[in-house]
Design brief:
191 residues; mainly beta; 20 strands
Length: 191
C-alpha cells in the first residue's frame, strides 16, 4: 500500500477509499488528527503511539464518518497530555467511533477534561481496549449513544459517564474509579 507522512496526506490521496485501513508505521506526535468527513476508516495502531499536546487528537464530524480503531501489534496507544481547556482524546459530532482494542490515555493539565466528548447523534461503541484518565471524566454524551460491550475504563475522577438526552447501554467491560468518591453515572433526560 501507499505510505503517507500525515493523515491529511492519506485523506487527500485520490487512491484513498472509504473503508481503507490506515496503519501507523512509527510513533508520532500530532496537533490534531481529523478523519475525513463522509468516510469510513479503520485506524490500526500497529503497536505504535500517537500522541498530542493539543486539546484533542481525533475530531470527527459528519453523519457519514465512522472510525474504527484496532491494534494489530502490541501496546498501541493514543495519548493526550494537554494544558488546554476542555481537553479530550476524541471529539465526536454526528459520527461513529468504534474502539476494538488499543490503549487510550488522557493526562490533562487543563480544566474540564473528558476522554470522549460526543454530540448530536454521535455513536460510541467500546468493544475492547483500555481507557485511562487522570483527573478527568470518562464520557460526556449529549444527544448521543454510548454502548460499552467490553474493555476497561480506569479513571481517577468520580464522574464516569455524563449523559444528557442520550442513551447509555452497558453489557460488558469493567469500570474502575480510583477517586475516594463513588464512581457515578449522571444523566439528564437520558435512557
Amino acid at each position: 500500500g501507499s505510505k503517507y507522512t500525515s493523515f491529511d496526506e492519506a485523506y487527500n490521496d485520490e487512491g484513498f477509499q472509504s473503508g481503507d485501513t490506515l496503519q501507523v508505521i512509527d510513533n508520532a506526535t500530532y496537533e490534531s488528527v481529523i478523519p475525513a468527513n463522509t468516510s469510513t476508516v479503520i485506524l490500526d495502531l500497529n503497536g505504535k503511539t500517537l500522541s498530542s499536546n493539543s486539546d484533542e487528537i481525533i475530531s470527527m464530524y459528519g453523519s457519514d464518518t465512522e472510525l474504527t480503531i484496532v491494534d494489530s501489534g502490541e501496546d498501541g496507544k493514543i495519548v493526550v497530555t494537554s494544558d488546554e481547556t476542555f481537553p479530550s482524546l476524541f471529539y465526536i459530532n454526528s459520527s461513529t467511533l468504534n474502539i476494538v482494542d488499543g490503549t487510550f490515555i488522557l493526562n490533562p493539565g487543563g480544566s474540564m477534561p473528558t476522554i470522549i466528548d460526543a454530540y448530536s447523534d454521535a455513536e460510541i461503541n467500546i468493544y475492547g481496549g483500555e481507557l485511562f484518565g487522570t483527573d478527568c471524566d470518562g464520557f460526556y454524551c449529549y444527544e448521543s449513544t454510548l454502548n460499552i460491550y467490553g474493555g476497561s475504563i480506569n479513571l481517577t475522577s468520580s464522574r464516569v459517564i455524563y449523559a444528557n438526552e442520550s442513551e447509555v447501554n452497558i453489557s460488558g467491560g469493567r469500570i474502575t474509579s480510583g477517586n475516594s468518591y463513588q464512581a457515578t453515572i449522571s444523566s439528564s433526560e437520558s435512557n
